Amino acid sequence: MAKLDIVNVTVSVEDSIILRDINLTIKQSETHAIMGPNATGKSTLAKIIMGHPEYTIEAGDIKIDGESILDMTVDERARAGVFLGMQNPIEVPGVTNFDFIKAAVQAKMGKENHLSVGKFILRFEDTAKELSMGKGLSHRYLNVGFSGGEKKRNEILQMKLLNPKFALLDEIDSGLDVDALKQIGETVSSMKSPTLGLLVITHYQRLLDYIIPDFVHVMIDGTIVKTGGLDLIERIDREGYDWVKKDYQDE
Ligand SMILES: Nc1ncnc2c1ncn2[C@@H]1O[C@H](COP(=O)(O)OP(=O)(O)OP(=O)(O)O)[C@@H](O)[C@H]1O
Ligand SMILES: [Mg+2]
Question: Which atom of ligand 1 is nearest to the CA of 18?
């Protein structure tokens, strides 16, 4: 069973440290949730696992099955089975949604394997339907003019079609109406499997009612300060983060 290890990772951007000594292991079959106040580094963590070039890894390592992936490009990491569903998906004028996803799936399969376009279209359409996505979205430019909810559905569409080993979902619930939240939550939950390791970043308990995590981590000031179970989510929902901060400062 594959595992993703984040080992003592410290990250900077433009000379300021954003993540400090992060340790986290995600095994296939596990679901981890990360919660934490705004601007504590949650998205940065997801981005550096995917290999975002803007950030500098000052110390530590990121490994899949014991092998460092730090030298790998975003594409190579995707091929190794890592997927990032972004908090703010980028808009790409000029590239249609369908072509983008098809290229990503083809790239993941490798040049030596041929993607049957006919079969892929059917899979794409079935999956889009399952996510209640309007038909027109496939032929529009990637995320351009998509509503907040459509962008989020589109990230999940990509995840379903790419079938990753490790999926990092960054605020996949933000901007969703209650029905969409239920649908996306249930869809992601139905993707749980012995071959998927899931990391879900969220501010709200609601999403985690559908995607029930095995581990809950709280991030404050660029560090994971607490790890626990579902009881942590309830307490944060009730009391906010002050008590976590206090515990952490008292240590
Ligand atoms: N490319 C960048 N350049 C400058 N500062 C950055 C960059 N990326 C992140 N930061 C800063 O790092 C901090 C952490 O940002 P990050 O987006 O990881 O927070 P977050 O925990 O995801 O917050 P939120 O809950 O609001 O999404 C913020 O202060 C942010 O401004
Ligand atoms: Mg964020």
Answer: 12
Cα dihedral: 146, 147, 150, 151 (round 10): 70
Helix (H) or strand (E) holding 6: strand 3-13
Residue having the nearest C-alpha atom to atom 31 of ligand 1? 39
Judge whether 166 and 82 are in contact, CB under 8 Å: yes
Question: What pTM does this model have?
Answer: 0.96
212 C-beta neighbours (distance < 10 Å), count: 13
Distance, first Cα to last Cα, the chain: 35
Sign of CA dihedral 217, 222, 223, 225: negative
SS3 state of residue 53: coil
Tokens coding 194: 């012995």
**Residue with CA nearest ligand 1 atom 6:** 13
Owner of token pair 């990032």? 84
For residue 52, the 8-state DSSP code is: -
Rounded alpha-carbon distances, angstroms, from residue 130 to 95, 106, 121, 133, 184: 23, 22, 14, 8, 10
Which protein residue has the closest C-alpha to ligand 1 atom 30? 39
CATH number for the region 3-90+163-250 comes to: 3.40.50.300
pLDDT, tens digit (0-9, with 9 covering 90-100), for 116-159:
999 999 999 999 999 999 888 999 999 999 999 999 999 999 99
Please enumerate in sequence order all residues whose Cβ is within 8 A of that of 12, keeping only pairs 6 or more positions apart, or say none.
Answer: 18, 55, 56, 58
